[in-house]
Amino acid sequence: MTNERVNEHLESTAKVEVNVREVFNIDSDLIVTGFREPGVYVPEIDKGYHFNKEVTLAILAGFEHNRRVMLQGMHGTGKSTHIEQVAARLNWPCLRVNLDGNISRLDLVGKDTIVIKEGKQVTEFQEGILPWSIQRPIALIFDEYDAGRPDVMFVIQRILERGGKLTLLDKNRVISPHVDFRLFATANTIGQGDFSGMYRGVQVLNHAQIDRWNILASLNYLPQEEEVSMVLDQVANLTREYRSKVDAMVSVASLTRKGFVAGELSTLMSPRTVITWAENTLIFDDLSLAFKLSFLNKCDEQERELVAEYFQRCFGQELMLTE
Fold first, then answer.
1. What is the CATH number of domain 3-218?
2. Are 85 and 199 in contact (CB under 8 A)?
3. How far apart are CA 209 and CA 227, in angstroms?
4. Could you report the per-residue pLDDT of 51-87, keeping only the tens digit for each?
5. For 129-183, how does the pLDDT look when each residue is reduced to its tens digit (9 = 90+)?
6. Is 0.85 surpassed by the pTM of this model?
7. What molecular function does GO assign, one term (predicted)?
8. First-residue to last-residue Cα distance in the chain
9. How far is CA 100 from CA 97, 150, 152, 285, in A?
10. Which of 1, 63, 246, 257 has its CA at 20 to 30 Å from residue 34's CA atom?
11. Domain positions in the chain
12. Contact (CB, 8 A) for 30 and 3
């Protein structure tokens, strides 16, 4: 689809009111605005997704009231997915950008490129993701926000104010944001750096920039029953007959998280890893082998006996560490 057709499609969708209680199964009288029809860049709806009430309301406030929302939480808690699934139910176009070390200022802002027009080479400015997005009804998500390079972060800081304009200094141009442009971010830390060693590469963020985010919500791991239901919903062909096994899987995951907090383990099982374990169990038809391939082999060798003890405690069977 050409840029012209994309622009036309993004601008052609009518608005509609969305009942939060009916759509998100959350006890709230909040009514938010969405788009009537899904279009390009709207994520697919995951019917089995489990919404956290507090985080969902924070995200909805971002969409409805144009607040800048940052989600902080451990890996695998579904921070980016949470924003996407809210956007999916609002039919709101959504883009994700991972702020790894390779993302530069030019990637965000744009740069001059040489193109062929009417048989001649000419220099033309190619917009980066920021000027392209800010002019459209797009929800832009910056993943791994605390891993961004300092020069990149200062570019983003220009648009963090509500209604903040983007200045393209090289082009002497000031871009005003589209009325339906929204900005979100996800991070494992809250800009104070990482002392656990789990998130190497994260940066200590400028406090003035963190202060510009209007809403900061934390997304933690789900309660036991909710995580079990989530795994059953997410893994295809995993019938309800597996519930007792999945319950034990989540119990193992919970023990690794407690062990990590207590300093006994250097890694932990995220909900993503539990889902992977369940999927691999179906592939190999062997729960113990799937556990080794999904998580145990990621652990430090000196910690594997403790992890095997967690397994034995939850499943009532010994886990052989060597064959």
1. 3.40.50.300
2. no
3. 34
4. 889 999 999 999 999 999 999 887 777 889 999 999 9
5. 888 999 999 999 998 887 777 777 777 877 887 677 887 766 677 888 999 999 9
6. no
7. ATP binding
8. 54
9. 9, 12, 10, 37
10. 1
11. 3-218, 224-315
12. no
